[in-house]
Amino acid sequence: MAHLCLFSLLVLSLVLETQALTPTHHLTTTDVARLQTLLSQPFTDLKSAYYSVVGLSKLGISVADAAETCRFIKSNLDPSSVESLFFAAEASQALPGCEIPVSNDTRDLLLATVSEDSTASQIHQSVSALSSLGLPLASQEVVSALKARISKEDNVLTIILALQTASRLSQQAELGEILEEIEDQVIQLVNSIFSKKSWDSLSEAFSVASAAESLSNNRFHVPVIVSAQGPAAISHSQPFLRLQVTNVLCKPLSSASVLVESATATSSKSAILSQAPFTLRDGVFELNFMASQPASGYYQFSVAIAGDSRFVANHVELKVKVSTRVSINNMDLSVVDKDQSIGPKTTRVEYPAKAKASFMADSHQIFAMTFQLVDETTGVELTPHQTFVRLHNQKTGQEVVFVAEPDSKNLYKFELDTTERKTEFDSISGTYALYLMVGDATLENPILWNVADVVLKFLDEEAPSTIQAKTLYTPKPEIQHLFREPEKKPPTVVSNAFTALVLSPFLLLLILWFKLGANISNFTLSPSTVLFHIGHAAMLGLMYVYWTHLNMFQTLKYLAIIGSFTFLAGNRMLAQKAVKRLERK
Amino acid sequence: MSNSVFSVISRFVEEYRSSTPNKLKMIDAYLLYILLTGVFQFLYCVLVGTFPFNSFLSGFISCVGSFILAVCLRIQINPQNKRDFLTVSPERAFADFLFAHTVLHLVVVNFVG
C-alpha cells in the first residue's frame, strides 16, 4: 500500500532551495520497454495483479488477456477486507468490461471505513474502491475524516495519503494551490524516480510507471526533458543543432515552441544569438547555428521552452561546441647564423608536402620555423591547445618534443639553438625528421605533418653511439647483507688460565684463616642459627639461579621471601650472640 | 734511607702481629683476598682485552664493593673505635654487612650477563 505513496512521498519529503533545476534523469524508450516487460510478468495474487494491470494501463498498454485477468481478480477477491476490495476495484477499472459485483455489505463496509477511527491508508483504500466501483460517497465526510486523521497522525505518510485520497474526490481548487508550490520538488522527484533504470520488484515497476504517467499527464506540472540529439557539436559539415524536447516518457511535446534566449561564447562572453527560434522537423527541433558564423570554441546556450503553462523546468542551459578545420599558412623554415652575418634563407613549405632539401644547423646557426594557424573557412587566426614540434632521430629512435609558442600577432615561432638544447639531444648529431603536431578539442582535423629533415651537428660528441633506455625499471644490484662480526675472543687456554688465577686467592684466604685459627667451635646448634645459615645459603643459591635462569622481578620476589626469613632467623641468632658476649664481659 | 723504611715496615708488622685482635686479622685476610681477586681481574683486562666489558665491570665492582663493605665492618667491629659507634653493636654491624652484600650481589649478578 505504501508503494503507491512512493510518488507523493517524495513530493512532500523533499526539503529544497528554490533554484532553477533541470531534470538529470528520464525514461528513454528502452527504459519504458523494460518497465513494460517487468510489469507484464504473470501474477500470483491479487496484489501483484493490481500492480501489473494498473501499471501497464498507466503506460498506456492493455493487458494481454483481459477476460482471464478479470476472472482471476473476481476469484481472488475477499469481500471482507478493505485492502482486497481496493486492489480488485482498481484493477477491474483498468480492464475494459470487467465489473466486480458489489453487495450491500461490501458498500457498507467501505463507507464505514471512512471515519476518523480508521488509519489514513484505510481511508485511502476505501475511498479509491468506492470511486472505482462507481459507488456514491460523501466528499465532506471524507474531507473531515482526513483532516482529523492528519491532526492525529502528524507524519509525512499521512499527509501523502490524504492528498492522494483528496485527488480521488471531485476537482477541488485547494489541491491545485498546494501543488503549485512544489515545482522544484517535482524536478527533484523526476531525478530520483528515474535515476534507477532497473527495477527489482513488481511494485517498484508499478510505482515508476504510474509516476511517469502522472508526470506526463497531470493538470499542474509537466516536466520537460531537453536533450541534444547526438553530441552538442556543430561544424560546417553539420551546421544544425538538434534538440529533442520530450516529456518524462520520451514522447515528443509537439505543442512546444523552443527558443534560444541567448547564446554566449564562454571565452569572450559576447552574445552571438538572442531570441532565435528553433524549427520543428520530424519531431526534432533544429537551429542552423553556423548561419550566425560563430568562431570555433564553446558556447553557452540558454534555451526556453514555451507553449504550455504546465511546463516545468523549461529553461535549460546547454554547452555547445563549434568545431572547425584548421589550415597551416606561411610555413617558413630558415637557418640563421648566430652572428647574423649571412642573411637567412627562407624556404616555404606547403602542407602536406615535405621540404625537398634538408636543413643543416651546427653550433654557429639557429634553425627557425614560423607559421600561422588559421580557420579554413573564415581565415580567422587560431591558437589551438597543442602545437608541438617533434624531432625524431631515425637511426637511434630518439625523439625530442618542443612547444611552439604564438606571439602577440598569433604568429607561431619555433627556434632551435643547437648549443642551448644539446642536453635534450644528448649531443647526438645526425638527421632528425621534423614533425609539426597540431591538435585541439574544437579541431576536426588534427595535424601530424613531416615538414622537413634537419641535420644537427653538435660540438662535443660525448654521448655513446647507442642510446641506452633510461634504466629506471631494471633490477638493481643485489645488496649483500653483512652480519655483525662477532668480537674476537681470546683463546680458551688464556681464559681458563686467568679464571684459575682469579680464583686462586680464595685458596690463600682459606690458608690464612686456618693459620689464624679460625674455627667453628662457637657454632651453637640452636634452631635460629641453623635456619639463618640455611636461609643465607639459599640466598647465595638464588643469586646463582638468577645469573642462569631468572630475571630481576622473579629474583626480587624470591629474595623477598627468603630474605625476610633469613632476616628473622639472623636477627634472633645475633641477638643470642650479643647476649652471650655481654654475659662473657 | 732504605734503612729507615725497612725498620718502619718491620716495626709496623711487629705491632700488627701483636696488638691486633684475631677477628680483625681474619677480616684483614679476607680483605687481602678480595684485593688480589680484583687485581687479577684488572690484569686480565689489561693483558687480553675488554671483551666482554660488562662482565669485567661487574666483577671488578663486586671486588671493590666487597672491599669497602669489609672495611666498614672492620672499622665498626674494632673495639678501639667503640666511642664512635655507640649505637652500633658488632652484631648489628655484621647484619648491615650481610644486607649490603645482598644488594651488591643482586646488582653484580644482574650486570655480569
TrEMBL record, chain A:
Residues 483-581 form the Ribophorin II C-terminal domain. One of its GO terms (biological process) is protein N-linked glycosylation. It is a multi-pass membrane protein. Residues 224-322 form the Ribophorin II second domain. The chain crosses the membrane at residues 497-518, 530-549, 555-575. The keyword Electron transport does not apply. Pathway: Protein modification; protein glycosylation. Residues 1-20 form the signal peptide. Subunit of the oligosaccharyl transferase (OST) complex that catalyzes the initial transfer of a defined glycan (Glc(3)Man(9)GlcNAc(2) in eukaryotes) from the lipid carrier dolichol-pyrophosphate to an asparagine residue within an Asn-X-Ser/Thr consensus motif in nascent polypeptide chains, the first step in protein N-glycosylation. N-glycosylation occurs cotranslationally and the complex associates with the Sec61 complex at the channel-forming translocon complex that mediates protein translocation across the endoplasmic reticulum (ER). All subunits are required for a maximal enzyme activity. This is Dolichyl-diphosphooligosaccharide--protein glycosyltransferase subunit 2. It comes from Cyprinus carpio carpio. The lineage of its organism: Eukaryota, Metazoa, Chordata, Craniata, Vertebrata.
UniProtKB/TrEMBL annotation, chain B:
It comes from the Eukaryota. This is Dolichyl-diphosphooligosaccharide--protein glycosyltransferase subunit DAD1. One of its GO terms (cellular component) is oligosaccharyltransferase complex. Pfam families: DAD (PF02109). It is a multi-pass membrane protein. It comes from Sinocyclocheilus anshuiensis. Component of the oligosaccharyltransferase (OST) complex. InterPro entries: DAD/Ost2. The keyword Membrane applies. It is found in: Endoplasmic reticulum membrane. Pathway: Protein modification; protein glycosylation. Signal peptide: none annotated. Belongs to the DAD/OST2 family. Keywords: Endoplasmic reticulum, Membrane, Transmembrane, Transmembrane helix. Subunit of the oligosaccharyl transferase (OST) complex that catalyzes the initial transfer of a defined glycan (Glc(3)Man(9)GlcNAc(2) in eukaryotes) from the lipid carrier dolichol-pyrophosphate to an asparagine residue within an Asn-X-Ser/Thr consensus motif in nascent polypeptide chains, the first step in protein N-glycosylation. N-glycosylation occurs cotranslationally and the complex associates with the Sec61 complex at the channel-forming translocon complex that mediates protein translocation across the endoplasmic reticulum (ER). All subunits are required for a maximal enzyme activity. The chain crosses the membrane at residues 30-49, 55-73, 93-112.
